[in-house]
Amino acid sequence: MVNIMNGDRRTGVAEEFIRRHHKHEVGENQCSSSLVKHIKAPVPLVWSLVRRFDQPQRYKPFVSTCIVQGDLQIGTVREVNVKSGLPATTSKERLELLDDEEHIFSMRIVGGDHRLKNYSSILTVHPEIIDGRPGTLVIESFVVDVPSGNTKDETCYFVEALIKCNLKSLADVSERLAVQDRTEPIGRV
Fold first, then answer.
1. Quick check: 72 pLDDT over 50?
2. Contact 141, 159 (CB under 8 A)
3. For residue 58, what is the DSSP state?
4. Contacts made by residues 19-24, CB under 8 angstroms, sequence distance 24+
5. Which range has highest mean pLDDT (14-28, 83-97, 116-130, 174-188)?
6. In a 3-state reduction of DSSP, which class is residue 42?
7. Angle at CA 6, nearest 5°, toward 5 and 12?
8. Does the pTM exceed 0.90?
9. Residue 132, by phi and psi: left (phi above 0), alpha (psi -120 to 50) or beta?
10. Strand partners, 91
11. Phi, psi (degrees; rounded to nearest 5) at 76
């Protein structure tokens, strides 16, 4: 399932990036989806937030604290404490990929007190022009087991809601920082 929020020409661009970078092997009792967000802030600013595996709370509203074990290399594990209100208190997550040139970030949940088993996600960041200014196309995809007692639709809906909230927060934080930087429109001196 691809949840693309705009019906314009950018849809084809997003679909191409999804085909190229968001490949998940989906088992019989799993669900998967891709979500797209257009952010009115330049790629370097957005990527500077996304790439910080050790500081997800900078834009993820459900994360209260994060403790990292290791030195921010592939395989590094973080323990995330989740704010109250969600059906979890902790999540243990491993960094799977961090590509600063292609702007690709991937992580896998390896433990915690929640129902997201065999969860992995890929998040990519791509430049685009929005209203004549440097903007960012963010795509996040995931695959996860469907817990016993839930349907694929229920599971996808729940995970998509979390990701949409995270992407909205990423946009809010990035756009607020971009306004502070007063990024000039492309083509102007």
1. yes
2. no
3. G
4. 21/102, 21/104, 21/122, 21/124, 21/139, 22/122, 22/124, 22/139, 22/141, 24/120, 24/122, 24/141, 24/142, 24/143
5. 116-130
6. coil
7. 110
8. no
9. left
10. 80, 112
11. -60, 140
